[in-house]
Amino acid sequence: MAQPVSLGHGGRLSSTAVTALAPAAWGTTYVATTELLPPAGVGPASRKGGPREKDEMKRVLATAAALVGVAATVLMPSHRATADGPLFPTTIALPAGFQAEGIAIGSLPIAYFGSMADGSLYRANLITGHGDLLTRGPGTQALGLQLDDRGRLFVAGGTGGDFRVIDAWTGATLATYHFATGPQTFVNDIVLTPEGAWVTDSFTPVLYHLPIGPDGALPPPDAVIRIPLTGDIAYLPGAFNANGIVRTPDGTALLIVQSATGHLFRVDPTTGITSQVDLGGESLTDGDGLLLQNTTLFAVQNRRNAIATIILNPAGTTGSVTRRITDPRFDVPATIAAYGDRLYLPNARFDTAPTPATSYSAVAVDRPR
What we know:
Layout: E1 5-6, E2 12-21, E3 31-37, H1 51-69, E4 81-82, E5 85-86, E6 91-94, E7 100-105, E8 110-115, E9 121-125, E10 131-135, E11 145-147, E12 152-156, E13 162-167, E14 173-178, E15 187-193, E16 196-201, E17 206-211, E18 225-228, E19 230-231, E20 242-247, E21 254-258, E22 264-267, E23 273-276, E24 287-293, E25 296-301, E26 306-312, E27 319-325, E28 337-339, E29 342-346, E30 360-366
Parallel strand pairs: 19-23
Antiparallel strand pairs: 1-2, 2-3, 4-5, 6-30, 7-8, 8-9, 9-10, 11-12, 12-13, 13-14, 15-16, 16-17, 17-18, 20-21, 21-22, 22-23, 24-25, 25-26, 26-27, 28-29, 29-30
């Protein structure tokens, strides 16, 4: 039997039974054989036909329907190349004028991109490089993105001070939160932990926390917790400060990069107290998006057109920069996500004046081994 693949809303997918066709707009036809498996805890031994079980199955079936049209169809391509390029292209064109910034990739080969221009979200098939607009934005920005295992996309709103939760399959807005207002607001990047979402603000020394319980229920609008950042970090006026954020390798604390100084800080999420990470004299100036894989931290240095590779100790108190990845296609990349053996980065092009006709793209590079 084929191995199940993680599927939004708690379901699983294995390649055995139903044939489906990908949307023509994605540029090629794929044949997929899929079998819907119930989410954990809703198997024959546990299913009692109660409201919760029925609701869960409805959600799984709805997700499966969406996947037939969007994602599940990429499991088994019907041929090895398309008319306009190879599979898994290393450059993905984004809409003109999009002003790409954030990226999120889950367990399926689908990337989500956020727009600095108006907060729109674009969804791209990593196998073909084709995509479509998932949802038009509310007029505020879409910066940091994170995708959870329930098929929900968390979106940081930048200068708008807002924070949205979007259904990654339908584009529907599930919840909106208002973290802050005013000129000293820049809600920037996100990390998800078992306790919920943690979000940086580049202009105000505060860490926003949106608590999410084990059942995944989104909290009410007044549940947002604001934790002042104290300790070693010192915000510089008029500069970009706290930016990318991840957990430490052992999961006991958080790490944030300060763009203006290039310092990396370990943050106690309960107190907001920060301590500078010892990088042996190295700097992460222009540090932007972060990605942690095991004890390896990838830090995008946007205007340096580089990705710093850092090996951390488990607690995240020390680290060593082992190399920097560069590529001639980098044009001020902002954030980073991984799929398979590749790292994907949207080119934000901060040094290029944006117009409705300005081109934007995302590029893929091999992940160091």
